[in-house]
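REVIEWER CHECKLIST
Item 1: Sequence provided? yes
Item 2: Single chain? yes
Item 3: Sequence as submitted:
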Amino acid sequence: MSEPTETTRKKGAIEVFMGGAKKGLYIGFDQILPAMILGYVIVEFLKLTGIIDILGVIFGPVMGIFGLPGESVVVLLSAFFAKAAGAATAANLFSEGIINAAQATILLMPSMLMGTLVGHYARIVLVSDANPKYRGLLLAVPIIDSVVGMLLMRLILTFMGLM
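Item 4: Structure as written out by the authors:
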């Protein structure tokens, strides 16, 4: 009988744990950290230029439907590019005192439901050559899901007495 090779040998619990830890660290440094930095930069840039105040006035009525200040539209914009950027932007708005915890919870919905929409649309819909007559619908569904999700989350938080 031949000796077990590296590929056929069973891995121990420590090796499995260390492999998972390496993968987790890689994901953190490669994907999450850059998105968090992007979220921070977006918020700081918009605050320093005063654009966030302008966005707050313009989008105040629309975002008010969800129980959010107008400035929170920045989360939706950054979520279009990356889920983690949307979540990080919401966290930064929370740390700046622009939104509260309940509002950050509402903003988690679009970050997850329509997050990375631009990239997914390009990689999946365009590359797969989806029927052009359905492309608009494929773009609209995550946005509609986000609107419904934010309304439901606001309703749940209201019933819980958190809004």
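Item 5: Key structural point noted by reviewer: Helices lie at 13-49, 51-64, 73-79, 83-95, 101-113, 117-126, 132-159.
Item 6: Recommendation: ____
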